[in-house]
Specification:
By secondary structure, the protein is α/β, with parallel strands linked by helices. The chain folds into 2 domains: 1-139 and 299-316, HUPs (Rossmann fold), CATH 3.40.50.620; 154-297, HUPs (Rossmann fold). The protein has helices spanning 15-30, 44-48, 58-82, 96-106, 121-127, 130-137, 169-179, 204-231, 245-255, 270-276, 279-286, and strands at residues 6-10, 34-41, 88-93, 111-116, 142-146, 160-165, 188-194, 237-241, 260-265, 291-295, 313-315. An 11-stranded mixed sheet has the order 8-7-6-9-10-5-4-1-2-3-11, with helices on both faces. The longest helix has 28 residues, at 204-231. It is elongated.
Length: 316
Amino acid sequence: MSIFSRILVGTDGSEAADEAVDVAARLASEHDGELILCHFVNWMPMLDTTAVGSFVDPAPIMADLRARGAEYLDRARLRANAAGVVAQSRLVEGEPAPGILDLAHDEGCTLIAVATHARSGFEHFFVGSTTEAVLRGSSIPVLTIRAGAKALRSGRCFERIVVGIDDSEPSDAALATVLDFPAEDRRHVLLCGVAGSAFVLGGHEYQQAVIDEFREDIERVIEKALTTAGTNGRSFEVRIVDGRAAPALIATAEHEKADLIVVGSHGRRGLRRLFIGSVAESVVESAPMPVLVVRGLQKVNAHSTDSSRPLATTRS
């Protein structure tokens, strides 16, 4: 089954969400895939703004939120129709991030497409975002489309692809995902390894020795990736660059005029993610082109399937 066989995309009526719908619809059209649009009616934030002890009748508020959500879905469906896709839609009550993960599981989706508004630093950690939560929790690939991202070329969506390569299972999964792309979707694929020498401290001789070791390690990783690609009848280009992983990958993708960056993710959470950092999330926050984030093989879904959640209201 293709990664583009059954795509779930969320919409909140924003310009960024419209761009995500456009990309998802185009992918569904190119690959004869199915597209499911979703919107989540989330009344929880209103409780935070209601004074303690006061009473607010939630019925009219919920009715307004549902009506607004239905309008967003109708608009998204028209955008999908313009790409030649007849999309399904789901209007669901609940928090967006866990709802998207549960819906993707229940609908048997092969890809989640989401818009992202770039945040960074402590605001990003403490405020969080739907996209960040989906990235950390999804066991299927997630395609992120940043607000104001560079327009896709007139041909296929993804003809020029940069794949971040390191010595990890998620990186292997990212490469395997690209290998499964149809040939017309990867006319030019660049495997990019980052030596990471920007972090080396100490004297010149020590620095050079560590840098040389970094490069030898990444050369072995790249050689392994090339062997994997070769056994699948693929011919890819390679590049080894120095610096911090996320900026180096993005700079390489911009230089190559790439349509897509593909990276693996370990799905780190909490303080460990804050202090260690996540290359995938850093790329998602800053890349001007779509980013496909792929997790390693998962034995179980990382999200909850709590049966107490409100059931979806389906709209054809």
